[in-house]
């Protein structure tokens, strides 16, 4: 072919291609191919570009990623068809695409991660947690010499502060406070108080006052060292012996501050009744801890994405008896899905939902999924999402993708969910393999 004619044809093809790209972008149909793609070993993935052109595709590590079921390091494909990636071994590979075999289109870093599967939960669990110190939940007035004072407030201690030490003694139980305060009061000496506020440690001096009405030495503080409630188990990872639940942080009901976990446990629980959700009223599951029930696991961490700890075996009543794949955040799509939860007794059931919005998150953030309950049975029973349902696992296309976290107060059939990826990271069983460049960009 005449070289000039070849150049003209190539120019026409490029003009057509870029016109197509511009039109598709304007219509919102242009697919987005990320700079980095993460895959679990053994779990295939398809790339849909839907572009009416031929391209050469190459991979520098065909031992890590196989293209379209072939071990070849390069091939010519039609971008109008899905490109199939089959991750063979953990490691990194670079996928390069060139238009017409000459013009660079995209280079994608493919990060293959060892396979990870977990058993979805859905069981209602009782949660008991002790804080790593004594939480201040309020101030009260002490009557001393016919005047009312609050020694704690005078010392600058605020609601939400976590008192960790008194006179160098680490506080492990709220009962210890009265004894230490009494000793200091009788000796007419101030207490050295060590406390935490917003993650930082401070010290102050506090002189107990003798309450003439109660005939006892008081600090002028309302305090608490434990909390209890009901939630839902999200997953159990049998290979690692750990679990995740709730999908959101445990906060103190009075101060709304996150509880710093000292110790805790999750227990078998049974739903006795449900207060239905209505607009303006989120409703709740009513449940009791089973007296003869065993402890399911301990609580080691309380994070923005739930509670996590050790668990020796999968609890009873699971819908899934074996582990299933999990999805990265960028795999979650709008469309039908289901949740697993309990509405009566201990029976875990499947209920249909619709995922109506998926946020693009390259770093851990809450509220990644907006979902809507569509199952008539669940709507009839609960009115939508109720308190105690948080942590209910979300399943899409056979993969665990996230957990229910919050209800929309004015629309109880809708609510938020978090991506399972972030829960798995906080559980310590999935490493953050994104590049630092991508983290900064996110």
Description:
- Helix content is 14%, strand content 46%.
- The chain has 442 residues and is mainly beta.
- The strands form 6 sheets. Strands 9, 10, 13, 14, 15, 16, 19, 20, 21, 22, 23, 24, 25 and 26 form a 14-stranded antiparallel beta sheet that branches.
- The chain is elongated, with a radius of gyration of 28 Å.
- The two termini are 48 Å apart.
Give me the CATH architecture of the largest domain, please: Beta Barrel
Distance between the terminal alpha carbons, to the nearest Å?
Answer: 48 Å
Gross geometry: elongated
Q: How many discrete domains?
A: 4
- Rounded Rg: 28 Å
- Beta-strand share of residues: over 45%
Short recap of the structure:
With 442 residues, this protein is mainly beta. The protein contains six helices and 32 strands. It comes from Paenibacillus haidiansis.
List the helices and strands and how they pair.
Blueprint: H1 3-26, E1 36-40, E2 45-47, E3 54-59, E4 65-67, E5 74-78, E6 83-87, E7 91-99, E8 103-113, E9 117-120, E10 124-139, E11 142-144, E12 147-149, H2 151-154, E13 162-166, E14 169-170, H3 175-186, E15 191-197, E16 200-206, E17 209-211, E18 216-218, E19 221-237, E20 242-245, E21 261-275, E22 284-289, E23 295-298, E24 301-303, E25 306-310, E26 324-325, E27 335-342, E28 348-358, E29 369-373, H4 376-382, E30 393-396, E31 399-408, E32 411-419, H5 420-427, H6 436-441
Parallel strand pairs: 1-8
Antiparallel strand pairs: 2-6, 3-5, 3-7, 4-6, 7-8, 9-19, 9-26, 10-13, 10-19, 10-21, 11-12, 13-14, 13-15, 15-16, 17-18, 19-20, 20-25, 21-22, 21-23, 24-25, 27-28, 27-30, 28-29, 29-32, 30-31, 31-32
């Amino acid at each position: 072919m005449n070289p000039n004619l070849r150049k003209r044809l190539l120019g026409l093809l490029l003009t057509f291609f870029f016109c197509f790209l511009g039109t598709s972008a304007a219509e919102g149909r242009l697919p987005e191919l990320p700079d980095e793609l993460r895959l679990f070993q053994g779990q295939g993935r398809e790339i849909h570009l839907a572009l009416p052109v031929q391209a050469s595709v190459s991979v520098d590590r065909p031992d890590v990623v196989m293209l379209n079921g072939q071990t070849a390091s390069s091939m010519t494909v039609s971008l109008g068809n899905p490109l199939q990636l089959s991750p063979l071994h953990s490691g990194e590979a670079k996928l390069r695409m060139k238009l017409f075999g000459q013009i660079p289109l995209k280079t994608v870093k493919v990060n293959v991660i060892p396979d990870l599967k977990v058993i979805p939960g859905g069981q209602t669990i009782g949660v008991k947690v002790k804080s790593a110190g004594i939480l201040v939940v309020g101030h009260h007035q002490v009557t001393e010499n016919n005047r009312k004072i609050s020694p704690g407030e005078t010392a600058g201690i605020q609601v939400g502060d976590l008192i960790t030490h008194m006179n160098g003694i680490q506080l492990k139980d709220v009962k210890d406070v009265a004894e230490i305060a009494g000793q200091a009061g009788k000796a007419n000496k101030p207490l050295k108080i060590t406390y935490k506020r917003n993650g930082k440690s401070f010290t102050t001096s506090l002189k107990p006052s003798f309450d003439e009405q109660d005939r006892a030495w008081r600090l002028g503080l309302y305090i608490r060292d434990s909390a209890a409630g009901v939630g839902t188990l999200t997953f159990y990872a049998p290979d690692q012996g750990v679990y995740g639940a709730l999908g959101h942080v445990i906060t103190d009901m009075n101060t709304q501050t996150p509880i710093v976990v000292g110790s805790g446990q999750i227990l078998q629980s049974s739903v006795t009744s449900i207060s239905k959700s209505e607009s303006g009223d989120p409703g709740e599951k009513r449940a009791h801890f089973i007296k003869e029930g065993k402890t399911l696991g301990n609580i080691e961490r309380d994070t923005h994405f739930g509670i996590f700890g050790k668990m020796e075996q999968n609890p009873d009543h699971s819908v899934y008896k074996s582990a299933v794949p999990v999805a990265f955040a960028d795999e979650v799509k709008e469309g039908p899905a289901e949740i697993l939860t309990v509405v009566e007794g201990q029976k875990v059931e499947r209920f249909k939902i619709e995922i109506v919005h998926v946020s693009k998150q390259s770093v851990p953030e809450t509220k990644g999924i907006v979902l809507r309950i569509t199952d008539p049975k669940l709507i009839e029973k609960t009115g939508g999402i109720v308190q105690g349902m948080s942590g209910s696992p979300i399943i899409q296309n056979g993969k665990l993708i996230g957990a229910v976290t919050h209800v929309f107060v004015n629309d109880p059939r809708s609510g938020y969910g978090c991506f399972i990826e972030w829960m798995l990271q906080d559980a310590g069983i999935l490493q953050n393999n994104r590049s630092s460049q991508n983290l900064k960009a996110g």
